[in-house]
Specification:
Elements: E1 6-8, E2 11-13, E3 17-19, H1 28-37, E4 41-43, E5 61-65, E6 72-77, H2 86-99, E7 104-109, H3 115-127, E8 132-136, H4 150-153, H5 156-169, E9 174-177, H6 186-194, E10 199-202, E11 206-208, E12 211-212, E13 219-220, E14 230-233, H7 238-255, E15 260-264, H8 270-278, E16 283-286, H9 288-293, H10 298-312, H11 331-352, H12 365-374
Parallel strand pairs: 3-4, 3-16, 4-7, 7-8, 8-9, 9-10, 10-15, 15-16
Antiparallel strand pairs: 1-2, 5-6, 6-14, 11-14, 12-13
Helix pairs in contact: 3-5, 5-6, 8-10
The protein binds flavin mononucleotide.
Length: about 375
């Protein structure tokens, strides 16, 4: 069986399946459950120093189902970062590292635009033993009203400055999590890498309006009759996430080959993960999938990914990481490639065409007959 273990920025994971920041990593109990079920690493729900400023509403999710099978394929949330106190989180991180010393625990952090706050949150998290940090520069709803999250992530200058603050005190690997709500994801990615981020995580959710209830005429999710723009996730966003990851991986490979990419967006199966890895991801994160299927989904994912690897003769993740990046071209190049291929096929076909009966040969008789039938 293929070896699924992988090391990302020195973090040794039994497999590349990582719990993405969100409800599946919302307290020590559920994080422990994820480790017990075999997830390769866990990124906790995003935390900040002043949880009392974080006030959630309900309902805060709305879901889109397929017309035929009723399966959920799109998910909007207007959930904020964790509303649990920073001190509680520090205790829980400590407990988790005591109980699971060999498992990778990553804190996701977010702060206001103040160097002292960012330095404090980095230092306090690493002091309690987390293995790495993910900078949430990408949550698209609620927090941007406080100039946090994607309010920073859409501005490369702020990304560079804030990542630089974190890097000035970080002693563990740091990933910067990108928002897809930009025209060119390479710009904030470059800024984070320039500031020294060890890796990029992408993507966070896509700004969305899930729909409008045609009875009440109110958009969803509906909180006392009103809503706010939310973040879209789940299967439906996979093509957009793959495109963003492809662009980020291409940049990393050409300019920062020692940095890593954690691919996120609509991953629900081992085969989804294979696609992200083929496009240059070192590991993949899953958030909404766990909310649909529970922590146990990691077992079939492991089987599917190793089945895919066995089928292609890949022994480990490095054997196919980024393999499919080589197949992207500009449209003009596609036109050129196709014209050349057509000319070659025509030449081959012409060579097989019989002009006189004496040209029939016994060896490629069937091909020659076929060429004549196509004219
Ligand atoms: C309900 C919900 C809450 C989330 N909370 C956070 C969060 O606190 N921090 C964060 O960085 N991303 C958060 N995310 C975004 C996910 O980590 C992930 O980037 C996104 O949902 C796309 O991946 P998915 O399709 O696997 O869910 C949240 C997503 C959902 C659905």
């Amino acid at each position: 069986m293929a070896d699924l273990s992988t090391t990302v920025n020195g973090l040794e994971m039994p497999n590349p399946f990582v719990i993405g920041s969100g409800p599946p990593g919302t307290n020590a109990n559920v994080i422990g459950k994820a480790f017990d079920e075999g997830w390769g690493a866990v990124i906790a729900k995003t935390i900040s120093l002043e949880a009392e400023k974080v006030i959630n509403v309900q309902p805060r999710y709305a879901r889109l189902r397929s017309r035929k099978s009723n399966e959920i394929f799109g998910w909007e949330n207007i959930e904020l970062i964790s509303d649990r106190s920073f001190e509680t989180w520090m205790d829980e991180f400590k407990q988790l590292k005591d109980k699971y010393p060999d498992r990778i625990l990553i804190a996701s952090i977010m702060e206001e635009y103040r160097k002292d706050a960012w330095c404090e949150i980095v230092e306090r998290c690493q002091d309690v033993g987390v293995d790495a940090l993910e900078l949430n520069l990408s949550c698209p709803h609620g927090l941007p009203e406080r100039k946090m999250g994607s309010a920073m992530g859409v501005n490369p200058d702020l990304v560079e400055e804030v990542t630089g603050w974190a890097m000035s005190v970080a002693q563990v690997p740091v990933w910067a999590k990108m928002t897809p709500n930009v025209t060119r994801i390479e710009d904030p990615t470059s800024a984070a890498l320039k500031a020294g981020a060890d890796g990029i995580a992408a993507i966070n959710t896509i700004r969305s309006v899930l729909g409008v209830d045609l009875e009440s005429l109110r958009p969803e999710p509906c909180v006392e009759g009103y809503t706010t723009l939310g973040g879209y996730s789940c299967q439906a966003i996979k093509p957009i996430a793959l495109r963003n990851c492809m662009e980020i991986a291409t940049l990393i490979r050409s300019e920062y080959p020692d940095r890593t990419l954690s691919g996120i967006g609509g991953v629900e199966t081992g085969l989804d993960a294979a696609e992200f890895i083929l496009l240059g991801s070192d590991c993949v994160q899953v958030c909404t999938g766990v909310m649909k299927m529970g922590y146990k989904m990691v077992k079939p994912m492991i089987e599917e990914l190793s089945g895919f690897m066995d089928k292609h003769g890949f022994n480990n993740i490095d054997d196919f990481k980024g393999h499919s990046l080589q197949f992207f071209r500009t449209h003009a190049e596609l036109v050129e490639i196709q014209a050349k291929a057509r000319a070659e096929r025509k030449a081959e076909h012409d060579a097989k065409m019989i002009r006189e009966d004496t040209q029939w040969t016994g060896d490629d008789f069937v091909d020659q007959s076929d060429a004549l039938s196509r004219g």
